[in-house]
Structure formats: C-alpha cells, structure tokens
Specification:
CATH architecture of the largest domain: 3-Layer(aba) Sandwich
Shape: elongated
Oligomer: single chain
Largest sheet: 6 strands, mixed
Number of strands: 14
CATH class of the largest domain: Alpha Beta
Length: about 425
C-alpha cells in the first residue's frame, strides 16, 4: 500500500478578487491584487487563482453585478476553493450574501489583515489592540444578522425568537468586551508612557526604523545591534515596537526602535488601534526609512510609508533612506537608484554590506546640530558629566575646587539640562 497519512493540516484554498474602479488605474489595481496574494499567503492560505473585475458601478447586494457574481462563483467551484477574498471592503450584508450565494467563506482585505494581526500578536498590548479591531469589525455584522431575523419575522415586534435573543446577547457581550479592552488599554498605555519617560530621562537620542511591511526592518535592527528580534519573510511579522541600544564606535549610544510595517489600505480601526505603536516613530529624533530594493513596487511602498508618517505627525522629522536587500535586487534597478534618490544608502541586512556606513551616517545625522560650548558644572550636579560624555564629545575637562570645567560639543536637545552652566568661551573672543 503506497498511500500514507499526512498529519499536516490542509491549507485553505482561496480565490482572490481584485476590483478595478474608475478611480483606480489598472496597473494599481493589479498591484493591489498581487499584494493581496502576499497577505493571503502570510496567513497560510493557498492562492488557487486570482481575477480582476472591472467595476463601473457598485451594487448594494454583492458589490458586483449578478452576472459577474455568477461567474466568480463558477470559478470558485471549478477551482474547488474554500474561501473567496475580495481586495475591496464588503459591507456586512454583501459579505453574508456572498457566503449564501457561493457556499464559501468570504473575507475582504480588512478582515484578512485583522486575521494576520491576530496570528502575529505576541504581547498583551498587541493582543488587546488586535482583539479590539476584530470586535469592532464584527459588531456591525452582528447587527445586520439581527435585522435579517427581524425581516424574516415580517418586521413584527414583541417577543424575540431564540435566534434574535442569542444575537442580542452576543451584541451586548461584544460591546461589554470592547469597553473592557479600552479600559485595559489605558493601563497598558500608561505603562508604555512610563517606559518612554524612563528612556527620555537617560537622554539618549532615539531613532525609529519605519517602512513598508516585509522590507527587512527587523533584520536591519538585528544586524545593527546584534539583537535577536523576530525577523521572518512574512507580512507584519513585527507588531510590537522593540527597542534596542546601538553603540557607535566613537563611544556614543542610540536607542533604536523597530515599528509595525505599513501597508496600503490599512483598515482605519487598525490604524487607530496601533496608534500607540506608531507614536514610537513620531517621538523619535531620527527616522530610518527602510525600502526593499528587490520589490518592483518599492516606489509605491515608499510613498505609502511617507503618507502614513505624515498622518501620525512624523512627516517633518529628519530621516535616512535605506535601500535594503541589495544582495537580491536587480542590478539595473540599483544602477538607477543613485540618480532617483541620491541621498539613499544601499545596504544588505543579510550580508552586512553597508552597515558600517549606515551606523556612521546615523551618528553624523544625530550630531549635525552639535554646538561647541564651555560648561562650568558644580560638583553638586556632577551627574551631568557622564551625560555629556555619553551624548556629546568632550574636548577638554579639568576639575576645580567646587566645579568641573568642560569644553565639549553637545546636541541642542541637552540645552535645557546644561544651558545654565554655560561660560563665555574666551578662546573665541
């Protein structure tokens, strides 16, 4: 007998549906459809087929016309798929109508992303954020189920049937849990604020690694800091901000944070849910924008990242553009890159190419606002001396009876700490 039992669970087969609207170019719609395939595979789905539907006018019942809907159902049955995934938001009634028509599970882009986030959440904060997004997504779908049952009873009011009672109980339970999560999130954010204030008291400069999902941000953090942050070839492998210390060869230090990756058409409730995570970027002194040189749509991904950064108030922060994965990128693309983005730096987190240059550029960017000063620091405030050594460059230091005289170069952000001890620099008079 040659047959054997395979204990591995069978992958869910999916049919992907892209929607070409009049307001969206065909190449952009196809690009989004390819990205949907990446999202589906990140969730463990097997993409059986993908089709693009040109839509001139949306319909309330199925989004597309009945003829096109029948065609999609026929393809789904021929491909023997388990689910149909739309790259366009479906209303609760549209999703339910599709499931009734096709007999398949039906998702839209938002639900797919929420499912991916659910599978990636590792900490309490991320788990709460994802659960909140999932419940807020499901609540209107439950309300529509209630309306359906009411219509089935002819719109009669009075004693509710068992189905309506169950839906009503579920609705109340979800609303109660949403309230609980929001209260828990307040405590989690307080804890995050405490952690951030502790880092700020240390006065180390801070940088955030930002970029499109799967651009290699976590791998870059690992390579720069010799950390051990989860780095996978999956979309949204990182949900929680991870902070590590980068030690410069000159002796200085930097706190560097890996953040959640961006993606086009991210559901608004997920943007809101992960605002605390994105705040790590907006509170930084420097952004390290990582782009995937091997991705043919890297320019689109860079534009998406810049758009999100502007939305969270980080659009004006100084930044370094890092072109990652140059070890697997097309050489013709790399040859054109310096002309298109002359200030970018090519690196490979995998091979180590360009990492020393990146560390030097980070240090140079952070110290570009340094100013040479002479400080007379009393011994009663001696704790400032290690801070100056850590954050600045000490040129000369001598100790007197009641104070230390320090000639140094310091970043302007330390002005509030040491400004009152500034002396007139006689050498410059």
């Amino acid at each position: 007998m040659n047959e054997y039992f395979d204990p591995r669970p069978k992958a869910e087969r999916a049919l992907l549906i892209g929607i070409e609207l009049d307001t969206v170019r065909k190449d952009e719609a196809l690009s989004l459809l390819r990205e949907l395939g990446g999202l589906a595979r990140s969730l463990g789905l097997e993409v059986a087929d993908s089709i693009s539907v040109k839509l001139r006018e949306k319909t309330a019942s199925l989004l597309v016309g009945t003829g096109k809907a029948d065609e999609i159902v026929a393809i789904a049955k021929a491909e023997n798929v388990d689910s149909i995934v739309f790259d366009h938001a479906l209303s609760p009634s549209q999703q339910r109508n599709w499931e009734t028509l096709s007999g398949k599970k039906v998702y839209d882009r938002s639900e797919l992303i929420i499912k991916i986030f659910s599978s990636r959440a590792l900490t309490k904060e991320a788990s709460l954020q994802v659960e909140l997004a999932r419940l807020e997504f499901s609540l209107p779908r439950l309300a529509h189920s209630y309306e359906d049952l009411s219509r089935q009873r002819g719109g009669r009011y009075g004693t509710k049937g068992s189905g309506e009672q169950k839906i009503e109980l579920d609705r109340r339970s979800i609303e109660h849990r949403i309230h609980e999560i929001k209260e828990e999130m307040k405590d989690v954010r307080k804890s995050r604020d405490v952690q951030r204030r502790r880092r700020e008291r240390v006065e180390l400069p801070r940088a955030a690694i930002v970029g499109y999902t799967n651009a290699g941000k976590s791998s870059l953090l690992n390579a720069l800091t010799a950390a051990d942050v989860l780095a996978e070839d999956k979309l949204f492998a990182t949900l929680d901000p991870t902070t590590r210390k980068l030690n410069f060869k000159s002796g200085g230090n930097l706190l560097i944070t890996d953040t959640v990756g961006f993606v086009r058409n991210l559901p608004h409730n997920l943007i809101d849910a992960f605002k605390a995570t994105l705040e790590e970027a907006s509170a930084s002194d420097l952004l390290i924008h990582v782009a995937d040189a091997s991705d043919p749509e890297v320019e689109i991904h860079m534009a998406t990242t810049e758009k999100v950064l502007s939305e969270i108030g980080a659009g004006e922060l100084p930044r370094i553009l890092v072109l990652n994965k140059v070890d697997i990128a097309d050489q013709a693309v790399l040859d054109q890159w310096p002309r298109i983005h002359p200030d970018s730096l090519p690196v490979s987190a995998k091979t180590g190419r360009g990492l020393d240059s990146l560390a030097l550029l980070i240090e140079k960017t952070l110290t570009s606002d340094m100013e040479e000063v002479v400080l007379a620091i009393p011994h009663s405030d001696y704790s400032l001396i290690p801070l100056i050594h850590r954050e600045g460059v000490v040129i000369e230091e001598k100790t007197e009876d009641e104070r230390s005289i320090v000639r140094c170069r310091i970043p302007r952000r330390l002005e509030g700490k040491v400004g009152k001890y500034r002396q007139i620099d006689e050498e410059k008079q």
